[in-house]
Amino acid sequence: MNLTLDRIVIIEKEVTTKNTVGTPVETYALLKTTFAAVKYTNGETEFNEGAQAYTDIDFTIRYDKAVDYKCRIKYEGIYYKILAIEAIGRRDGMRLKCVKFEL
Fold it and tell me: Residue 80 is part of which domain span?
């Protein structure tokens, strides 16, 4: 993998916890902080019941079998949802195709 992994990203994984009354609650917990290559691929504004801006971005990281579709990426204070995971080489790395989303 001949990419420059020069950006720091935080990967969080969805977990189920219980609130104070014992009801299951979906939340995110830190999985890892790692280096990544970042590439902005597209951006657009969709007009439905208002304007919604989308930013498509690819993060390339070293392979980690714990990273899956239950994860989200935090980069420069913004959260990104994983839409696709592509393997690079023989588990050398992985490209995470993501879109920015609002919390």
Answer: 7-100
